[in-house]
Automatic annotation (TrEMBL):
One Pfam assignment: LysR_substrate
Alphabetized UniProt keyword annotations: DNA-binding, Transcription, Transcription regulation
Start and end residues of each HTH lysR-type domain: 1-58
Family: Belongs to the LysR transcriptional regulatory family.
UniProt entry tagged with the keyword DNA-binding: yes
GO molecular function, one term: DNA binding
InterPro entries hit by this protein: LysR_HTH_N, LysR_subst-bd, WH-like_DNA-bd_sf, WH_DNA-bd_sf
Name recorded for this polypeptide: LysR family transcriptional regulator
CDD domains, sorted: PBP2_LTTR_substrate
Top-level taxon of the source organism: Bacteria
Amino acid sequence: MDTRLLRYFVTVVESGTVSAAAQRLHMTQPSLSRQVRQLERELNLTLFLRQSGRLHLTTEGREFLETAEELLHHHREAAEYAAQLADGRMARVSLAAPTTTLTDIVAPFVATFRSIDPVPSVSEISIDSEVHRVLSSYDMVISPVRWPHTAHAPHLVNLPVWAYVPLDHRWAGQEHVDLADLVGETLILPTLRFKARRVFEAALDHAHLGPVTTLETRHSQVAQALAAAGRGVAVLTDDARYGLHPLQIHHLGQPLQIHLYAGWRAGHHAHSSLEDLAMRLRDFCQARYAPKSNLSAI
């Protein structure tokens, strides 16, 4: 349906007469009358009764008026939104991240959004999600993966893989623990869907080590709860909970870390806006994590 015909119809109703509406629309009265009759033919409705040279809304015309006004409102909104997109502006932004990143980084970052920022939506994804699919499904993906060269993926921060112990543990006064010493403990590990577990396993393989006793859980908060209960040492990248003490895990004198990136597809209409958002997120991550982990930005 041609929205011009709807606009002509609404203007005639608002103006009271065809002649007054024609003046507002900068067109001739006969031309406007033809357009109104064309709309009636397309709708198969009689919108006006014509009596003594005046138009009177029919009952069906009055009911259709509300629909016409709503359609015109949505049309204006769509046109305004399209103009924003064409200018590279964003009214909304869709973000996605794996579980721990979403909980500890993305959600707290969203809490800092201002009224002038785009309205965010946040989704949880698997760390093994197919790269091209997630880049086409979301405006920005925050994840500890290396993106293809076709994507824009600035580095945000390096996050330590922590060994969490209760405050009465013999290591509670230390800042780090060597991987070789750690494997002598009962280790509480997340499943392989967590990047921390994969980095830890890779370090064990490299050092030709293996933990003696392990407990595995699908939930990182449960892992920390078990550590707080004295059931072992939790190996995670999550923020500390339950009063646990974090220890950096060292292997060959270097801390185990995961590298966090913000990725979006090449050619995104709002590239500049996403780049600005990524830099704000990087600053947020540095302020949140750098003081306690001595991380460096790129």
